[in-house]
Amino acid sequence: MKRSIINTAIAIATLTTLTVSANAEAKKGGKGRYKAPEAVFIKLDADQNAVLTLNELLANIESRAQKKLDRADTNISSEIELDEYLAKKRHSVDLSEFAADIVQCVQDTKDATEGSNIIVPAASHFASPQSKFTQLDTDNSGGISLTEITNTLTAHQTDAFSAMDENIDNSVTLEEFIQHGENRRATREAVKACIDSLITLDEPV
């Protein structure tokens, strides 16, 4: 029964991914919600030498971390506590029960669509909100400090740079930057389609 549910979810996710991708392709060149990758690249490329370095990606990382803290720290304790962390909608949903099925669905969607842009996530990506909070709270203080936010953002940007730098020359070209964006979009679409299908078919949340 469970396998049947997963198979149906995969079919729906595949169709959804193909439809969304086709719509995105049709809208290329028009006005969209997000800035064109070329414009983002130019803004990040501080020295205007047509390639990005890790240092350029990490520019203003402290101020970005401070903004995240200021938005979430409603009780002004200089840390994001668990209730404040969970107040953000995307942090409050627990998908850990569906982790293995989501990963399998995304893998099968990638195979079915021959979607080389889809990056299959690890099951740890769907850990419970409490587990994610604990991972971020590296000093076990019960709250996520500015330093911890900065370290997390730095790690994410470093991982993103490594993923973009396909030829490992410590620089990212516009082509690599655009490809990374396409990979993220395709992956996000596949993951969302799988989550929506599995949760709807299995049990309401």
Keywords:
10 helices; 205 residues; 2 strands; flat
> In this structure, how is the largest beta sheet organized?
2 strands, antiparallel
- The DSSP helix count reads 10
Helix-strand topology string = HHHHEHHHHEHH
Q: Report the end-to-end length measured between terminal Cα atoms.
A: 20 Å
Envelope shape: flat
Oligomer class = single chain
Proportion in helices: 55-70%
Annotation, overall tally of beta strands: 2
Strand sequence of the main sheet, in spatial order?
A: 1-2
Low-confidence spans: 15-32
Q: What's the gyration radius in Å?
A: 19 Å
Mean pLDDT: 86
Describe the structure.
- By secondary structure, the chain is mainly α.
- It has helices spanning 2-26, 37-44, 54-57, 61-72, 82-86, 89-92, 99-113, 129-136, 146-164, 174-202, and strands at residues 79-81, 143-145.
- It has a two-stranded antiparallel ribbon.
- The protein is flat.
- Residues 15-32 have low confidence and may be disordered.
Summarize the structure.
The protein is mainly α and 205 residues long. The protein has helices at 2-26, 37-44, 54-57, 61-72, 82-86, 89-92, 99-113, 129-136, 146-164, 174-202; strands at 79-81, 143-145. It is built from ten helices and two strands.
Question: What is the strand and helix layout of this fold?
Answer:
Elements (H helix, E strand, L loop, with lengths): L1 H25 L10 H8 L9 H4 L3 H12 L6 E3 H5 L2 H4 L6 H15 L15 H8 L6 E3 H19 L9 H29 L3
